[in-house]
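Case study.
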Amino acid sequence: MSTVSSLDISDIRFPTSRELDGSDAMNPDPDYSAAYVRLRCDDDSQGDGFVFTIGRGNEVVVAALQALAPLLTGRSVGGPHELAETSRALLHDSQLRWLGPEKGVMHMAIGAVVNALWDRQARAAGAPLWEYLSFLSPEELVDQVDFRYLTDALDREQALDILRAAEPGREQRAGLLRAQGYPAYTTSPGWLGYSDEKMIRLAEEAVAEGFTQIKLKVGADLEDDVRRLKLAREAVGPDIRIAIDANQRWDVEDAVTAVQRLAPWDPYWIEEPTSPDDILAHATIRRQVGPVKVATGEHGQNRVIFKQLLQAGAIDILQLDSARVAGVNENLAIILLAARFGVPVCPHAGGVGLCELVQHLSMFDYVAVSGTQEDRVVEYVDHLHEHFADPAVVRGGRYVTPTAPGFSARMLDASRTRYAYPDGAAWA
Amino acid sequence: MSTVSSLDISDIRFPTSRELDGSDAMNPDPDYSAAYVRLRCDDDSQGDGFVFTIGRGNEVVVAALQALAPLLTGRSVGGPHELAETSRALLHDSQLRWLGPEKGVMHMAIGAVVNALWDRQARAAGAPLWEYLSFLSPEELVDQVDFRYLTDALDREQALDILRAAEPGREQRAGLLRAQGYPAYTTSPGWLGYSDEKMIRLAEEAVAEGFTQIKLKVGADLEDDVRRLKLAREAVGPDIRIAIDANQRWDVEDAVTAVQRLAPWDPYWIEEPTSPDDILAHATIRRQVGPVKVATGEHGQNRVIFKQLLQAGAIDILQLDSARVAGVNENLAIILLAARFGVPVCPHAGGVGLCELVQHLSMFDYVAVSGTQEDRVVEYVDHLHEHFADPAVVRGGRYVTPTAPGFSARMLDASRTRYAYPDGAAWA
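After joint prediction, the assembly is written out as follows.
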């Protein structure tokens, strides 16, 4: 029996805008930040979670986390059943729901708390989260899912069928995963703020390190995009996949024009060509830019958007994010939806701690849902990992499978102190 | 020249859950609330705006308003051009945008500020907002609109064409409006928490007062819904329109089953049958429940959702809300989209101050965009108006056209003090 006794909430910001790491067509100068929550329970167990933001407004998410504290304090959280109930209690609080519903600041804050509960749960069980989740029963897993608004595409029985079909090979795949890790791709070469020389050097280094896919940011200026993609293609050769990412900069016609212009240099996917809310626009763009694939999801607000993207045939690649929807539970729904439609999940990561979290979800997907790594890659960006107790590690272009108990969510206390905003030493 | 000097932000809550006013299938016990902002300028002009919430979490919206203060203080806001620029500056702040993008708490807070700027602008011009807006030039109006993500359905030239086509009759329609007001319908009889007797009595009173449309809440229990709709139909007779509102309670199949079951009592529209994010579900439901009309929009997060609802043929009735999207500017986009697709706008209202605000938008729609009141009605709920300096007035089933300068947004100081949360006398 474990009962939530308190939430320790903090505003943590890294001054990344000073180096233009993370710069793209929509986000020229982000300060990568986390609205961070540490749940403490009366049995001394703890769980950590956070919302990733890019600076200003991180304090608004902190306020949302604080608004959740009264709903959590005193709640029993000692197992999958209690966790499912707590997730539902947070999402279905009618007064808080009005602030979304199920989107934006309030929803992200709920996601951070739900993720922290899973971190606590896996730590208490002594297993890394991917493994803990992978060996829950199909019934325990579907109990985590809120099927409201999903049943025209996926109901409980269909979800159970997917999980049961994957049951037989779980042990074997977990063993392979521990031995070989999970495929990664890297965005580190491609930030818009980097010079051509830096981009080329980093792209060549990525290939030398074993990555088979890299990503470039596009969308600020089409002639620049053409030049950069051409240079990158020449640098890495024809066999390396180059994804391009417009970070929502385009309308439909702009997107089609740009991708067609870039097509001679064989971009693998176009990511976030337009508004993350625009299912119909993605479907229209996809019909016109093939064989270039369409990918989106890092700003997908909830399972209802993902359901529609799949129903409309709007995406080739589903890019869930670990810290935008309502945590592990809603991402289970999204992973099951992707499996139902046969669309590969290639998660968004980077930011603060997103690689740490999301690797667990893809590994769970491999072991217990899709059963394959084919055309699956998890994004990797090589910054800010040093602030985590159990940092994501990529070697030879693959994530090294985590073995430490938990969700890899815990930030070092020294980092939490130094980057506390506005009073930490980094901001002095 | 007018420059923002300060924002006075407050957390105001009315303990409406004590009476079950406002109770529906998703919101059993709302405390109608406002995250309220008063902009003060260096020339002593002021503007008021707010986000409507239903209680818990109102403080999160307050935090979001506070996050906007540094972007506003010192800005010049003295005319439509400056107002358009300020709206864009708030929406395009890349760091704050991450918190949506363009949805949820942060977006609603931006809406409150933008609405406050329009209140200030109309008050400074000495005109009620509907009139001030109606006689801006088509070019000034389209300059207010952010066409990003809209151009596959509506571009600047098409919007100009709509406005220019409506120019000739503006004076005449404004005169009719001043003389006759604008059609209203009432939700006051239909709250789920009311007894059958109270519902019937209020429905009969509504008809006696001149309303030609009422609305009932449904969605908690289908047998209750059937009984209540039958009783209401018997009470008001065949010529009064009865809308029903499920407040997002259903999945697709539930919605179709329920509406078909209720159809013998001739519901006029089914409102919010399912998730407000689910464009495809609304389209599917609409194909199966005709001739009952499908209506949604009060939780439509932004113009991109409305664009898709129209593109997909998912709605018969567009129910914009004055205080959920990014204020007057985004609602101009939504009104123009509705006109482009020939779908009537019947706004959501009620809550705290939503009737006060939204009447101006429908009146503007009539004078300067659609040019008609046919099948158009603005929701009316008869509570909390006494807290406003320029309260909405409905007589004979029609909104009385406002004549006082501004957006009717200003809450009385005595009310702001008494209902301040948690320290006002009402909460002591």
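Observations recorded in class. The mean pLDDT of chain A is 96. Chain A has 16 helices and twelve strands. We will return to this complex in the next lecture.
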